[in-house]
Amino acid sequence: MSFSIAGQALKISSQEDMQPHIDAIAKLDKCTHIDFSGNTIGIDASKALAKCIAETPSVRDNLAEANLADLYTSRLVDEVLESLQALLPALLKCPHLHTVNLSDNAFGLRTIDSLGYFISHAAPLQHLILSNNGMGPFAGEQIGKALFHLAEHKKKLSAPPLETFVCGRNRLENGSSLYLALGLKAHGAGLRAVKLYQNGIRPRGIMNLLHYGLRYNTGLRVLDLQDNTLTATASAMLAETLPLWKDVLEELNLNDCLLKRAGADAVLAVFVDTAFPKLHTLKLEFNEIVQSTVEEKLLVAIEAKHLPALKTLQINGNVLEEDSEALDTLQGMFDDLELDDLEEPDSDEEEEDDSDEDDDETFLEVEADTLEKELLQADIDQLASDLAKASI
User: What are the boundaries of the region Disordered (predicted)?
Assistant: First the structure.
């Protein structure tokens, strides 16, 4: 049974403001889903809701999904911090809470400790959605560490795996990529969907994510890297990694990733050589992909039946010949194919030299094993500290 006041733009500041909603929740025999998204709640209201969640058996023992997105419009940072300090510990008391959406909340750095603790200890969590939270590289690094600790926590309790991690529109950039990669790696084959769209991650960061993280997520079905930057170098590493997911990958979103000609050639050559029987969505818009790549790679892969499940194809915004036989063929295969914003090829323009890379496009080896050992030691130190407190 669900409770929802989603999208009502209510201002719920005090306990009195929250009470009618608490009363409605308490009347449910089993409350499995609460949705407060699209409203704004204050500190006292948050404390009242937290008490309801933690102390009402019909809620605490049954809650499976909590949508707390867009919850703090017009609230000060102090209010957001105190609200989270009340709500997140209450959610940790829910043994079946598998889905939490905290998107569209401007958390800021001051909330990262509370958020990191919650993620680290939310053993039942299977789907975590954190988009548009104003998190930069440092916050992203902390989230990565929290994901690592969550995986260790799940192992100790034999809890179900984390299946979905969404962290888009957060400007995570390269600085978060290494620890984020280790956090993703820790969840191994159980991780099904990773969405890191619109984060300003450049080639070196993408390579960190692939080399130190995603290649260990062998059960990955959905990968969304939209509006980050790959160019030739990160595209080459993606091409090396893609075959690991050949039997499971269902959706690949590389829109606005600046693959360029060389990068697109590398990625699409994978589909020429290897069949991906479950891939139903392939998004490649606005990547400076040229006509020859479509004709010699993409179309060849499709006609070879290496992409038999492909239903959604996006190639708009590339450097393609609108009145070409290849695009006519593709339009005949895909009814929804949009080709209304193509860049016209310019025969007079000098071809760009993709080999002219900056330092950010080279891969740097790091001692990832050492970093993982440090994270494991931090887990042991925390456990020792918790035990010491419990004995006092």
Answer: 341-361
Contacts of 75 (CB under 8 A, 6+ apart): 40, 41, 42, 83
Residue 34 lies in a domain: no
Q: What is the domain extent for residue 276?
A: 48-71+81-346+359-366
Is residue 354 one of the residues assigned to a domain? no
What pTM did the predictor assign?
0.94
State pLDDT tens for residues 98-112.
999 999 999 878 899
Is the residue at 40 inside a domain? no
Q: How far apart are CA 392 and CA 384, in angstroms?
A: 13
Structure tokens at 320: 């393609």
71-107 in b/e burial notation, b at 16+ Cβ within 10 A? bbeebeeebbbbbbbbbbbbbbebeebbbbbbbbbeb
Residue 252: inside a domain: yes
Provide the residue type at 175 as one letter. Answer: G
- The pLDDT tens digits for 153-180 are 999 999 999 999 999 999 999 999 999 9
Tokens matching residue 142: 């902390």
Based on the structure, what is the number of domains in the chain? 1
**For residue 293, what is the domain's CATH number?**
3.80.10.10
Strand partners, 326: none
